[in-house]
Fold this protein.
Amino acid sequence: MKMEHDLHMTIGEEETSYFKNSRLQEKALVETKPVLQKIVMEMCVALLHPTMTIVDLGCSSSDNTLFFVSNVIKAVSYHLEKFSGHPTELQFFLNDLPGNDFNHVFQSLQRFKNSIDVDHKGGPIPAFYIAGLPSSYYRRLLPHGSVHLFHSSYCLQWRSRVLAPTRHSLLA
């Protein structure tokens, strides 16, 4: 079995799908929201480039991915409104193994964009772009120095390859 291609979540919206069984991951996103907001605000202050690039590693196929994206957009919008910062474009890359079903996420994008417009009620919304990046994150995904924020929530338990021993692991 080639884990990177064969190991994936149950696709679709059936009772056994990840879409229907990802409440624990959703709870983790809710609990870590203040930390994410703080980090995004700090990045807005320090960012010299007009485009902030964000990668969600192991995003899978549920609404949790768009919840994360929404939290980043809201934090940047708040920064723009409060500090009259320079307009920032957001580039999101949603990463997961090629065998996972990105269709649910991409089919939800129009509804998601409409909800962002409604939530902001006239406030500044940064332009944002969302793309899929189907690959293992154990290889370089994007050019060196091009990503401002990597996000990983609950994906390390699904490692697609065994890590090489390190000096520290040999001492334990």
